[in-house]
Amino acid sequence: MDFEVLKKELAEHKVYTAWQFIENTNANIRVAWYCLNTIAALSDKMTEIAHKNNEEISEKIKKNKSITITEADIPDFSIDIAGEDVDGFFLIQKLIRDFYQYLRNSFDSIGQIANAGLLANKGKKVDGTDFPAMRGKFLHQTYSGEYPLTSAWFLKTDGDEEFKYIDAVCNRVKHTAFIKNQVSIGLFGCENKMNMGVFLRKGEQHEKANLKDKMQQAIKYTEDSYAEFLAAFSAEFKNDLHISGRYHEGIKVYQQYMKDSELSSFSLSYIVSQQPFSEMPDEIYILLLRNNEDEIKAADSPFTTILITSTDDYKTAIGRYVAAADDAVGKDNIVKYRKYVKDTDITDPQIALIKSIRDGTGKFYHANLFFDLQTVSVSDDDTFLKRTVLPF
User: Fold this and answer.
1) Beta bridge partners of 182
2) Cα 21 to chain centroid, rounded
3) CA 125 to the chain's CA centroid
4) First to last CA, the chain
5) Where are the beta strands (DSSP E) in the chain?
6) Are 319 and 349 in contact (CB under 8 A)?
7) Residues 17, 231, 238: CA angle, nearest 5 degrees
8) Residues 6+ apart with CB under 8 A from 104
């Protein structure tokens, strides 16, 4: 999968917010690989410590013919982490839990990709979009018909024994209790033992299994399943369903500032429309986005209202949209298509203009990549004019 190509295609098809969840899925799988590789490195290090200890004891036996083994002769399996000694067995057990947690997180992130990239305007809110929620959504008759490939992936994954095991381990440890895994380093010629413990979850018995084999199977399964999902997703998001009324560009902002006149100091955002306001959709969705050849940047829309004008002049207002009350935007690194609804309480365009000016009183913006900013030069505050042309 060429992720750079995919990223650009998501922007072109106005489902760019799916990209952040693709990045998160990739990050989850990378963390799982880190856990797996670190467990192997810890095992090797602890085995090295055990061998060194065995050699020391063997030398003592050769020298003294016989010795009494005491607790002091047991090797110290502490590992230096940032200057602190941490028990190696504790680290391995922790990394096993983290490994399964991040693999399971990957499937929740995949659910977020499907929600943002396919359901789009019909999607669920980001905090209620885990794998089970999206499985139910895509198995619904409406969406299974629109997205048969993605629907088939959810159905197949939900029935896969490997997915069920990842889910069982993760949720057992997270919600109930630790699994008693066997992790031992062999002393005096004994073999190392690393086994996933036996456990019962929701009436299903999971038997003891070789830990290395189970973890390698789990991460291979996750990567293969993710690749299958991306193939289905890439084929279906380009159908451009549920993306009507989405804007990346075309947002303009007019602002003016007078030191001693609050009513004459305001900003307002507007979009020029060739359609009569009555023919525009009841809802529009805005994500501030700039798609350059080498870089894509996105940001949430900060505007509480969007004026609609007939020409590139805010005074030619024909109506307005207001930010949806149920679609709050806060300070976060997650970006979204912010929803705006028609302000049907106002039928007079001039009243819509006056209310938008009032809403924008005291709100000002700097020059930026995302929208066309016009700051009128009639301001009586030169410092304000100089400050707003700086991009921060």
Assistant:
1) 195
2) 4
3) 13
4) 36
5) 78-81, 84-87, 182-184, 193-196, 199-201, 204-206, 209-210, 246-247, 251-256, 266-272, 283-291, 296-300, 305-309, 317-323, 338-342, 372-375
6) yes
7) 50
8) 166, 167, 170, 171
Identify which of 322, 326, 314, 360 has the alpha carbon closest to the alpha carbon of residue 344. 322
User: Which of 30-39, 77-86, 106-115, 239-248 comes out lowest in average pLDDT?
Assistant: 77-86
Residue with tokens 């197949």: 156
Reply yes or no on whether the pLDDT at 360 is more than 70: yes
Q: What is the CA radius of gyration of the chain?
A: 30
Q: Is the pLDDT of residue 345 over 50?
A: yes
Tokens of residue 302, six digits: 């900060």
Asked if residue 38 lies in contact with residue 189, where contact means CB atoms within 8 angstroms, the answer is no
CB 26 within 8 A of CB 222: no
Determine contact, residues 384/257, Cβ cutoff 8 Å: yes
> What is the number of residues in the chain?
392
**Identity of residue 96:** I
Angle at 209 between CA 40 and CA 201, to 5 degrees: 115
Q: Tokens for 17?
A: 């917010």
The H or E element that residue 354 is part of is: helix 349-359
Mean pLDDT of 296-311: 95
Selection from 80, 107, 129, 127 nearest residue 25 by Cα: 107
165 closest CA partner among 212, 104, 108 = 104
Place of tokens 């997915």: 163
Type of residue found at 291: N
26-40, 52-66, 115-129: least confidently modelled range? 52-66
Q: Cα–Cα distance between 166 and 60 in angstroms, integer?
A: 47
Percent composition of the chain: helix, strand, coil (DSSP 3-state, to 5): 50, 20, 30
Q: Which is more confidently placed, 374 or 73?
A: 374
Residue 191, SS3 per DSSP: coil
Spatial distance between the Cα atoms of 303 and 305, rounded to a whole number of angstroms: 5
Q: What is the pTM of this model?
A: 0.89
CB–CB of 268/355 below 8 Å? no
Kindly give the pairing relationship between strand 266-272 and strand 305-309. parallel
What CA–CA distance (Å, rounded) separates 274 from 309? Answer: 9
